[in-house]
């Protein structure tokens, strides 16, 4: 089964919570209460998302956290990569040299191609689109290249 980590799932909820007021700084504890995720987990995620440039932080009485860019300019791929690292369906797809069988693997190249297609699809879905799934359904349209391994184009109705 392909699935993102629980921490990344919570990270999308954090980003979703911040996107309701993208220009306003929000306290970590307030955000945790709003989205129903434990305050230490929210604090950990905000720290990572800030380090990766998706969130800005400000100290002081009026401080807190806010999105570094508008939700329409942040992709799902960026969120996943900020929290889970490079996108890849197999170890060798995300990080070459991480598998003992890589040199004699007969499916490595195709797993890498599939990983690129998935990464491209995630890179075409914005946080804004993620937050409006019923209003703007996503459709993935194959774009065939010469190898038959195209990319997926995402359109919103």
What does this structure look like?
The strands form two sheets. Strands 1-2 form a two-stranded antiparallel ribbon. The protein has a two-stranded antiparallel ribbon with strand order 3-4. Helix 1 (6-19) packs across helix 4 (76-84). It is of the alpha+beta class and 157 residues long. The protein folds into two domains: 1-73, Arc Repressor Mutant, subunit A; 86-157, no CATH class. The chain is 43% helix and 13% strand. It has seven helices and four strands, in the order αααββααααββ.
Strand adjacency order, main sheet = 1-2
* Beta strand %: 5-15%
CATH architecture call of the largest domain: Orthogonal Bundle
What is the assigned CATH homologous superfamily of the largest domain? Winged helix-like DNA-binding domain superfamily/Winged helix DNA-binding domain
The chain-level mean pLDDT equals 84
Order of secondary-structure elements:
HHHEEHHHHEE
Ranges with pLDDT <50 over ≥5 residues? none
Helix content: 40-55%
Can you count the beta strands? Answer: 4
Helical stretch tally: 7
Distance between the termini: 29 Å
Structural class: alpha+beta
The CATH first-level class of the largest domain comes to Mainly Alpha
Q: Radius of gyration over alpha carbons? A: 18 Å
Described by strand count, sense and barrel closure, the largest sheet is:
2 strands, antiparallel
Write the layout of secondary structure elements.
Layout: H1 6-19, H2 28-35, H3 39-51, E1 55-58, E2 64-67, H4 76-84, H5 91-94, H6 108-123, H7 127-130, E3 138-143, E4 151-156
Antiparallel strand pairs: 1-2, 3-4
Helix pairs in contact: 1-2, 1-3, 1-4, 2-3
């Amino acid at each position: 089964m392909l699935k993102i980590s629980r921490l990344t799932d919570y990270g999308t909820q954090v980003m979703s919570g911040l996107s309701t007021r993208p220009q306003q700084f929000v306290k970590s504890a307030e955000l945790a209460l709003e989205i129903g995720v434990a305050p230490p987990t929210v604090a950990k995620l905000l720290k990572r998302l800030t380090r990766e440039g998706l969130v800005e932080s400000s100290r002081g009485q009026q401080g807190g956290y806010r999105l570094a860019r508008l939700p329409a300019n942040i992709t799902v791929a960026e969120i996943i990569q900020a929290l889970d690292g490079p996108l890849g369906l197999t170890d060798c797809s995300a990080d070459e040299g991480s598998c003992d069988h890589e040199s004699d693997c007969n499916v490595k190249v195709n797993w890498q191609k599939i990983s690129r297609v998935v990464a491209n699809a995630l890179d075409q879905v914005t946080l804004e689109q993620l937050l409006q799934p019923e209003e703007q359904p996503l459709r993935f349209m194959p774009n065939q290249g010469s190898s038959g391994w195209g990319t997926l184009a995402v359109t919103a109705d």
